[in-house]
């Protein structure tokens, strides 16, 4: 009988220890650029499994997220599609500039769902008989701006402009191309690539010299300061597990 209280105390201690991570686990609301949807879904699942913290994800255009954040939206972290928006957020006191870092450098791709339609040099822009091309709104989406810079560099902006179907963000732009409503689309490489391979269709990966770098920065927002889950996520994004996922979707660093 004398051993029973000891065993009881021991089991109670073990049970408490097992529950400790869950008791300290937190949650952070994350605004994620639409181009980073697939990799971030994978990273968030790994993050929760490895740390116990949960990242609640919202996807959309960086420009729209800025407007929402400026109007008090309760996001704790922003994963932007550019570096200018997090810089602006830091300047305006909407986020902690000391936490800002580049989590990925995006790659732009001209893509068609149809195999063999887009050639390896992107000459289909000059020679194809296509009627529409999907491009994200360059005022809201950095990938849309990069697409227009590419067309300018090729001397095709004026020729192509009347055939542009504008997506609100890069996610909607991809849907236009994937549905066939537009036979061509300038989209993020991450949307059509997985594990280093093109999932379907045909593509021209736009050389990085054709547009300004798509440097994608993360920042802890005002609502996320002091939130352990926000801090843990920022640290996790710098780790090798997250970076392996990011690389698999065609991003650089």
CATH superfamily assignment of the largest domain? Answer: Periplasmic binding protein-like II
- Tally of contiguous helical segments: 11
Largest sheet, strands/sense/barrel: 5 strands, mixed
Beta content: 15-25%
CATH architecture verdict of the largest domain: 3-Layer(aba) Sandwich
- Report the order of strands and helices: HEHEHEHEEHEHHEHEHEEEEHH
Q: Tell me, rounded to a whole number, the average pLDDT.
A: 91
Number of strands: 12
> Strands of the largest sheet, in order across it?
2-1-3-12-4
CATH domain class of the largest domain? Alpha Beta
CATH domain topology of the largest domain: D-Maltodextrin-Binding Protein, domain 2
Taken from the alpha-carbon principal axes, the silhouette is: globular
CA radius of gyration is: 22 Å
* Helix content range: 40-55%
Q: What class would the helix/strand composition place it in?
A: alpha/beta
Q: Count structural domains.
A: 2
Low-confidence stretches: 6-23
Keywords: Metal-binding, Molybdenum, Signal
Binding site for molybdate: 62, 170
Subunit structure: The complex is composed of two ATP-binding proteins (ModC), two transmembrane proteins (ModB) and a solute-binding protein (ModA).
Organism: Acidovorax ebreus (strain TPSY)
What's the structural blueprint in terms of helices and strands?
Blueprint: H1 4-24, E1 27-33, H2 37-51, E2 54-60, H3 62-70, E3 77-79, H4 84-91, E4 95-106, E5 108-112, H5 124-127, E6 133-136, H6 142-154, H7 157-160, E7 164-167, H8 170-178, E8 184-188, H9 189-192, E9 193-194, E10 197-198, E11 202-205, E12 214-221, H10 228-237, H11 240-248
Parallel strand pairs: 1-2, 1-3, 6-7, 6-8
Antiparallel strand pairs: 3-12, 4-12, 5-8, 5-11, 9-10
